[in-house]
Amino acid sequence: MKIAAGADHAGYAVKKAVVRRLRAQGHEVLDMGTSDGETSVDYPGFAHAVADAVASGGVERGILVCGTGLGMCMAANRHRGVRAADATTPHLAEMSRRHNDANVLCLAGRVLSEDEAWAITEVWMTTPFEGDRHQRRVAAIDDTGDAG
Fold this sequence. Notes:
Elements: E1 2-7, H1 12-24, E2 28-31, H2 43-55, E3 61-66, H3 70-76, E4 84-86, H4 90-98, E5 104-108, H5 114-126, H6 133-141
Helix pairs in contact: 1-5, 2-3, 4-5
């Protein structure tokens, strides 16, 4: 699978570990930065770069890491066709795939250990989307009409 990954300084170490393990499994990973964990950088630019790659179809999925995962998730979800999920447990990662067809995983670099982040990523990467009634709901995410 082709995956784009990005992180700010707070997520650098976790991103680096996850990217290494994904590559070891044979995935093609486009690392979109940051390139070190020492220099303070702003997360939105990395979130937008990864989300653009996913939204355009250049990659199948994206992984973003910041301190909490929340800022990356908010920025990525501004892109039409991106369904980013901030998952702090394997169960949340599984449900984000099964029911929401999440195509971007956001991780908390200051909350999760590298092993915890990998456990979450493994579940997210291997869990299929269930479709059926969930397909209608996923389609409604990009619907800008009135929910009324």
